[in-house]
């Protein structure tokens, strides 16, 4: 089931930050007021206000720590999104560049293909920045993308090893190349995964500062 995105997401995030800030400030001001009253007008019989003030100060401190942790998590998530967007741009350039263009059937030759990068994907998955509820679709897609890139790069290693260790007939070079570029093949599958990842980042995470600007480099 899809979750609210765009303006509702930004509104909920802003209200959450305002709520924690308001609770922290209210507790601190209430504790300060009780302390001032207790020092100036209270007698020994009203000493029970002292633990009340301390309790409110502790509530404010705990709330502030929780709010700070949430803010730090949002910052780490924003950095991960920036890295994913930059990596997507780089892999798009590789997948659409001359390195993966079909061989010339009139003069096929062995070649070394560029390798797709996945360091940002690995870092995002290992760090757990998207482990909170609401990011399940992105996590699933990142796992599929990482597995697809790893498998594709490994197959490139095997194909290049085959074509470079010995003399390979032109017909076999063309067969290897055609298998890579066929509809529904590994390369086609990766391109579809890349497109799905771009669509998700644009649709759900473009409101994050810096993400849309990076994705706009894709054209």
Shape: rod-shaped
Q: Report the β-strand fraction as a percent range.
A: under 5%
Low-confidence stretches at least 5 residues in length (pLDDT < 50)?
A: 1-7
Helix content: over 70%
Structural class, judged by helices and strands?
mainly alpha
Radius of gyration: 28 Å
Number of beta-strand segments: 0
Please provide the ordered H/E string of secondary-structure elements: HHHHHHH
Alpha carbon gap, first and last residue: 30 Å
Transmembrane segments: 20-39, 51-67
Keywords: Membrane, Transmembrane, Transmembrane helix
Protein architecture, described:
The protein has 219 residues and is mainly α. The chain has a domain of 145 residues. It has seven helices and no strands. α2 packs antiparallel against α3 and α2 runs antiparallel to α6. The longest helix has 48 residues. It is rod-shaped. The N terminus is likely disordered. Keywords: Membrane, Transmembrane, Transmembrane helix.
Please give a quick description of this structure.
This protein has 219 residues and is mainly alpha-helical.
